[in-house]
Write a structure and sequence with these properties.
Helix content is 15%, strand content 35%. It is α+β, with helices and mostly antiparallel strands.
């Protein structure tokens, strides 16, 4: 596997509103989308596809995000990364998920991710692809 850069950070919190305030006011990141279930998505300035996502603790998505912030490692090939993580007998927490399977992202044919637990017990994410070429519905990340 070849990691290109850190491209995503996700955090699940019992302190959703103060964390959102910290990310926007203190860190200065722009809110690009928010869901009623308690997910706020902020754009990072490094690339069009880099985000910080704040999950409210009762958000049903990614219940395995329990070890603190989860970093997303951008890789060349998500399938190869998955196979390598599997060959290391590390716990895969979710199958490869494709953005194209979500409404509004049907054209994101190469954007995918999966989460796993590292040997340190922390959760990590491997991801591939780019959403810069997508035409996104207004109000979505």
């Amino acid at each position: 596997m070849k990691v290109q850069r850190l491209a995503w950070l996700g955090v699940r919190t019992d302190h959703y509103e103060p964390t959102k305030d910290f990310v926007s006011r203190v860190l200065g990141l722009q809110l690009v989308a928010e869901e009623d279930a308690g997910l706020a998505i902020y754009s990072l300035p490094g690339a069009d596809n880099d985000y910080v996502e704040v999950f409210r603790s009762d958000n049903p998505e990614a219940p395995f995000m329990t070890t603190g912030p989860v970093v997303g490692l951008l890789v060349d090939d998500v399938h190869a990364a998955h196979a390598e993580i599997e060959s290391e007998n590390l716990e895969i927490l979710e199958p490869i998920t494709w953005a194209r399977d979500f409404d509004g992202f049907e054209d994101a044919t190469d954007y995918a991710w999966f989460q796993f637990r590292g040997p340190d017990g922390n959760v990590y994410c491997c991801m591939q692809g780019s959403r810069t070429d997508l035409t996104r519905p207004e109000g979505t990340a």
